[in-house]
Design a protein that fits this description.
Blueprint (H helix, E strand, L loop, with lengths): L1 H27 L5 H5 L14 H8 L1 H4 L32 H6 L2 H6 L4 H4 L28 H8 L14 H4 L8 H4 L14 H5 L7 H6 L43
């Protein structure tokens, strides 16, 4: 009887040791431990600056596999309705999810070169704010995993008030310029789209009948009521008058990570 009890105790201890070893192995391997993965260095500076899409999608591949609802909770079928982004002429195809519209749709592949780290620059899983601890990453946006200023670059309002000759939003004045943005922009603001998340060649070689594509990212898909303060090159001598008030204190170059 005593020997049986001893054998049972040894078996239990052996089993506990095996479980402990498995748990330790999982803790060392982020692929098998969710909590450990959340704090993996790749989610923070400086490692995230070098993260590839392949590394990100290894754990987050669901963002490209998700699909939109075929029918809303109210019973409205997607093919019988129009999403807000489908109202713009330069979008084609069925409704798509947010990430797919920025990464894999035909328009995204033609005009964009987004990477995961274009928008995602790390965040603190604990309370999503900088300065909450000695080791917290600095520069985080309070309670947001992406800086809204990045979204504003392509989703701000059409800033017609600072454009000479424009009296209203582009749809209201497009006919006056034969619906061609290059009517003016072949002379002004000629250095543009030199950002690593845009396909400069495709954008700069749009046909005259594709000018609505310009408006698509410059007011046509506005998420915000404010425009993005695009960088200003040195004020040209041929521009009449003094530097206008709205152009003062504008940045003269973009963040280096968008131009490298």
């Amino acid at each position: 009887m005593k020997q049986s009890q001893t054998a049972l105790i040894l078996r239990i201890m052996s089993l506990m040791l095996c479980v402990t070893q498995i748990q330790a192995k999982d803790a060392e391997d982020p692929e098998h431990d969710y909590l450990g993965s959340r704090w993996d260095p790749i989610h923070f500076k400086p490692a995230i600056d070098q993260a590839s899409d392949e590394q990100c999608l290894k754990c987050h591949q669901e963002i490209l596999k998700r699909t939109t609802r075929s029918e809303s909770p109210a019973g409205i079928k997607s093919e019988e309705s129009i999403a807000w982004y489908q109202t713009n002429q330069n979008y084609s195809g069925p409704q798509e999810t947010f990430h797919r519209r920025h990464l894999v749709t035909p328009e995204a592949r033609r005009f964009m070169q987004f990477k995961c780290i274009t928008c995602h620059q790390g965040h603190d899983p604990k309370d999503e704010v900088s300065g909450s601890s000695e080791t917290a990453q600095s520069g985080l946006i309070l309670r947001k995993s992406v800086d809204p200023d990045i979204c504003l670059m392509c989703h701000g309002s059409f800033d017609y008030k600072v454009m000479s000759g424009l009296s209203g939003d582009w749809p209201e004045v497009a006919a006056k310029f034969e619906n061609d943005c290059v009517t003016c922009h072949k002379e002004y603001r000629t250095v543009r789209h030199k950002l690593n998340f845009l396909n400069e060649y495709e954008i700069e070689n749009l046909q005259a009948n594709e000018s609505d594509l310009c408006y698509g990212c410059h007011g046509g898909r506005a998420w915000y009521a404010i425009p993005y303060p695009y960088v200003r090159r040195p004020w040209l001598q041929r521009m009449p008058g003094a530097l206008p008030e709205w152009a003062k204190n504008r940045p003269t170059k973009y963040d280096a990570r968008f131009t490298n």
